[in-house]
């Protein structure tokens, strides 16, 4: 890739060739894609982006794989919707919802997997694999199918049915009796003597770059401007760090004037090591054993947790720990005001937003984006007890008795 110079260790700065590797041999720091921004600046403009496809690949100059090889099922360019009704409810006049549940497999993970699977093809792998909290499984299996690769997807066995079946329909899914951190460890061991592309392990430097596209899209969809606040659901912290990186890159390249966005961490009470580190003023999140209904956020040892805390601090952002009981409340609030059915992670985001608005952390007129990263149809269990329906016989009389009667009383 002419736009990429190397993989670079985030800790000691050592450079590595572009290979399926993810950790520094010297200091064990994570590797990150290092671009040649001078070369990119010559090739990228608002116009060149607008001429591109209506997918993440419109930003290919800032991605580590080639648009010509793209494994794409259409990830990206999801709607950014002005949230008038929810805004009124919360006293926010300038609120936007980025609806990434509108991606092909209904979560933002299609972005990262589109990049990782393209890179896997470029590296000539024939098996694509992942350790997943749920949504990554569906995205990996679907992209593997599209690329004609073998898929090998590992998930905790206690996941929601929608996530298990929604992945298994595309290819091979292995349920592991353990939590995500157990699954991840198993996958690292499996990867040692198998030549598989684990999208979030040996392909992680490439994978994570896919999340930058949310930052780019926010800027483009707002009319080439960075928002004042973004609220991001955090699991490993990869998405959080990369939305920030995307906005910074656009500013650095002069595509937008500046990027002074305050970055806000949203986590559920039952798995909140990153938000807790922020609140307690600690740099390093302490690992926890997750116990939350927001299973997509249930990573107890977040690989990018420390970097996320750093970014929240540096930008004047925040960290919020959402009580478990408020997760379904957030899901219902978004559904009832904006007609968007999000999963538990979105419930965490909306409840965080409500708290930040109440506390005055977000001012009434400040441009704010809440990231909705997955669909509620995969986590029906979470709202089953708080949503009511009525059943009638197919007669007017029954309708009057049950529905009209209920409405009057
Ligand atoms: C994976 C996921 C996240 C967060 O992922 P990171 O590991 O922090 O990048 C957020 N929301 C949903 C719905 C997810 O599936
Ligand atoms: Zn290093």
Automatic annotation (TrEMBL):
EC number(s) recorded for this UniProt protein: 4.2.3.1
Claim: Lyase is one of the keywords in the record:
yes
Q: What InterPro entries has UniProt attached to this entry?
A: NinF, Ser/Thr_Dehydratase, Thr_synthase-like, TrpB-like_PALP, TrpB-like_PALP_sf
Q: Name one GO biological process term.
A: isoleucine biosynthetic process
What cofactor does its activity depend on? Answer: pyridoxal 5'-phosphate
Alphabetically list the UniProt keywords: Lyase, Pyridoxal phosphate
- Note one Pfam family from the annotation: PALP
Q: Which GO terms describe its molecular function?
A: L-serine ammonia-lyase activity; threonine deaminase activity; threonine synthase activity
According to the UniProt record, list the residues that bear N6-(pyridoxal phosphate)lysine.
Answer: 109
Highest taxon in the source lineage: Bacteria
Q: Where is the Tryptophan synthase beta chain-like PALP domain?
A: 72-374
The answer, when asked if Cytoplasm is one of the entry's keywords, is no
Q: Which family does it belong to?
A: Belongs to the threonine synthase family.
Identify this protein by name: Threonine synthase
Q: Which organism is it from?
A: Candidatus Lucifugimonas marina
């Amino acid at each position: 890739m002419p736009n990429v110079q190397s993989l670079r260790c985030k800790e000691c700065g050592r450079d590595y060739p572009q290979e399926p590797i993810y950790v520094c041999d010297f200091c064990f720091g994570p590797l990150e894609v290092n671009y040649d921004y001078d070369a990119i600046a010559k090739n990228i403009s608002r116009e060149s982006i607008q001429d591109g496809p209506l997918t993440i690949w419109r930003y290919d100059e800032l991605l580590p794989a080639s648009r010509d090889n793209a494994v794409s099922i259409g990830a990206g360019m999801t709607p950014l919707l002005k949230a008038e009704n929810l805004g009124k409810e919360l006293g926010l006049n300038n609120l936007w919802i980025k609806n990434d549940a509108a991606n092909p497999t209904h979560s933002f993970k299609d972005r990262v997997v589109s990049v990782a699977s393209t890179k896997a093809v470029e590296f000539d792998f024939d098996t694509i694999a992942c350790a997943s909290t749920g949504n990554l499984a569906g995205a990996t299996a679907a992209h593997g199918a599209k690329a004609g690769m073998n898929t090998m997807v590992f998930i905790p066995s206690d996941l929601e049915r929608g996530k298990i079946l929604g992945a298994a329909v595309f290819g091979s899914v292995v349920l592991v009796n353990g939590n995500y951190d157990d699954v991840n460890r198993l996958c690292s061991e499996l990867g040692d003597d198998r030549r598989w592309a684990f999208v979030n392990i040996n392909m992680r430097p490439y994978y994570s770059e896919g999340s930058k596209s949310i930052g780019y899209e926010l800027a483009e969809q707002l009319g080439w401007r960075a928002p004042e606040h973004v609220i991001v659901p955090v699991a490993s912290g990869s998405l959080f760090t990369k939305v920030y990186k995307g906005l910074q890159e656009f500013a650095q390249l002069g595509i937008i004037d500046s990027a002074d966005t305050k970055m806000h961490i949203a986590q559920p009470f039952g798995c909140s090591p990153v938000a807790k580190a922020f609140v307690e003023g600690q740099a390093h999140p302490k690992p926890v054993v997750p116990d939350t209904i927001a299973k997509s956020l249930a990573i107890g040892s977040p690989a990018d947790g420390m970097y996320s805390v750093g970014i929240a601090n540096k930008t004047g952002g925040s960290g919020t720990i959402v009580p478990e009981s408020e997760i379904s409340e957030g899901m219902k609030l978004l559904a009832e005001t904006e007609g968007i059915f999000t999963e538990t992670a979105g419930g965490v985001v909306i409840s965080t937003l409500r708290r930040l608005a109440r506390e005055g952390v977000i001012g009434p007129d400040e441009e704010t984006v809440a990231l909705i990263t997955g669909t509620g149809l995969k986590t029906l269990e979470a709202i089953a007890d708080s949503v009511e329906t009525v059943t009638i016989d197919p007669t007017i009389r029954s309708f009057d008795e049950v529905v009209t009667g209920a409405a009057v009383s």
